[in-house]
Design goal:
By secondary structure, the chain is an alpha+beta fold. Helices cover about 35% and strands about 25% of the residues. The strands form 2 sheets. The protein has a 10-stranded antiparallel β-sheet. The N and C termini lie far apart (about 50 Å). The structure holds zinc ion (ZN). Zinc ion binds next to loops.
Length: about 350
């Protein structure tokens, strides 16, 4: 066993009941129990959930949908994280087994990832699913895993992915997050948004691809029952989306992934233009500290600073979301390219 494997072994939770539940392939129940046990044994996590219990929320209504704004001081480190190469090289990776707090334990999944409790929760139940290896955040090689993990956790949780340049606080270490299902407004509003603001790009008996622009956000969605088909479609989408870039980098995206036994998968891919909007860089009085990622664009916008929370308005949120979303020409191009691709 190599050193990393030994370290990972130390962080696997030892609990007979969890082993039993995992053997029955009930990863959502196992994760729920993990959280319960970790809340008893890991002080930092307990503190995080205590802080979550005191968060303030306000809601802004747009035409037929809403954005909740959550004042959550526990997220300050994550929201303000410097994710440039230099800053990343200077810090210890907080997702590598060698740097996990001694009390932090997890559950292995797909033999490639560790389900861990997130000590700075946003959801009533919030997990980080970290790769066992220290490897860059990258969707092309991990989409298949995202799809499978979504199914395994689907009884209770939605799974999200943040691109390395648009929200991932560890762009150097592959990870997803999982949180309480239907906690982000977009999950309930999806069909409304699709009908009201969407365009169906292709529809067959086993696949629907839609493009939605609600004035704040732009996203592409896939609804499919077959995971193999879903992986193929994502690969095609990725190629088209990448062609908008002049460089070879991963095109910016945030993903919210859901699964229901009856309907299959529903993947929402928010298309991005920037990591942070201009509001983040304004002088202190005007500054609004928001680093939009999946959860924010999903309609649950996190603000870690109280004065910003007090100041933020319906209009400012709309501006921030609009600014970080893919530019109009890009969206129009993408839609027509995808239509052509999938009809041909
Ligand atoms: Zn790492």
């Amino acid at each position: 066993m190599n050193n990393n494997r030994k370290l990972i072994e130390l962080h696997l939770i030892k609990d007979n009941k969890i082993s039993e539940i995992i053997n029955a392939d009930e990863f959502a129940n196992a994760s729920e129990r993990l959280l319960k046990l970790q809340l008893e044994n890991w002080v930092q996590l307990k503190k995080g959930y205590k802080s979550l219990a005191t968060v303030k929320t306000k809601s802004f209504w747009y035409s037929g949908f809403k954005v909740l704004v959550q004042f959550n001081p526990g997220r300050l480190k994550s929201t303000s994280a410097e994710v440039d190469k230099e800053s990343i090289n200077e810090r210890e990776c907080f997702l590598c087994a060698e740097n996990l707090p001694e009390a932090q334990k997890g559950i292995g999944i797909l033999r490639k990832y560790l389900i861990l409790c997130n000590p700075y929760p946003i959801f009533p139940e919030h997990f980080t699913i970290a790769s066992l290896e220290h490897q860059p955040q990258e969707i092309l090689s991990s989409f298949e895993d995202l799809v499978e993990i979504t199914r395994k956790l689907s009884a209770k949780y939605s799974v999200i992915y943040n691109g390395p340049k648009c929200g991932a606080s560890a762009p150097d270490h592959l990870h997803f997050q999982a949180g309480t299902k239907n906690f982000m407004p977009v999950e309930d509003e999806f069909n409304y948004l699709k009908n009201e603001y969407g365009e169906i790009l292709t529809e067959t008996s086993n696949l629907i691809i839609s493009a939605v622009d609600d004035g704040l956000r732009k996203f592409i969605s896939f609804e499919a029952r077959d995971s193999k088909l879903l992986n193929e479609i994502f690969y095609k989408f990725y190629n088209v989306y990448t062609s908008l870039n002049s460089n070879k980098e991963e095109p910016m995206m945030n993903i919210i992934s859901n699964y229901e036994k009856e309907f299959g998968w529903r993947i929402i891919i928010f298309l991005r233009n920037k990591h942070r909007s201009s509001h983040y860089y304004l002088e202190s009085k005007e500054k609004i500290m928001v680093s939009p990622a999946s959860i924010d664009l999903g309609g649950l916008c996190i603000i870690p600073v109280e004065k910003d929370f007090k100041k933020v308005s319906r209009e400012i949120i709309a501006e921030i979301f609009y600014e970080v979303s893919l530019f109009q020409e890009g969206f129009v191009y993408l839609k027509s390219a995808l239509k052509k691709y999938f009809s041909g």
